[in-house]
Amino acid sequence: MGSSTANKKKPYIKALLFGVVSVAIYAVLLTRQEDINANFARGGAYALLPIATAFLFSIVHGNFTGLFWSVMGIEASKKKGGH
Q: How many angstroms separate the CA atoms of 70 and 83, rounded?
């Protein structure tokens, strides 16, 4: 019953990796804020940079959050019957 969950390896290394990358991109965003804002405001193709940055944060931080909860032993429930 619960043995498959108990035997499943927890993704400690992946969680740590995504956590470190998440902290690093937040640090870059906060320490280089003036440079980043100047590039975002240049117009043209540079207008895509805020969108790309939002996707980057979403992917990295989202993966870290999911892995963090997996390491903590909390998983989303899986509904039976396709509902």
A: 24
For residue 81, tell me if it sits in a domain. Answer: no
How many domains does the chain fold into?
Answer: 1
- CB-CB contact of 28 with 21 (8 Å): no
Strands (E), 28-82: none
The residues near 39 (Cβ < 8 Å, ≥ 6 apart) are: 46, 49
Q: Is residue 82 part of a domain?
A: no
- pTM higher than the cut 0.90: no
Rg (CA), the chain: 18
Dihedral sign for Cα 61, 23, 17, 74, please: negative
Give the CA dihedral 51, 54, 55, 59, nearest 10 degrees.
180
Structure-token pair, residue 41: 């405001």
Residue 60 lies in a domain: yes
Question: pLDDT > 90: what percent of the chain?
Answer: 80
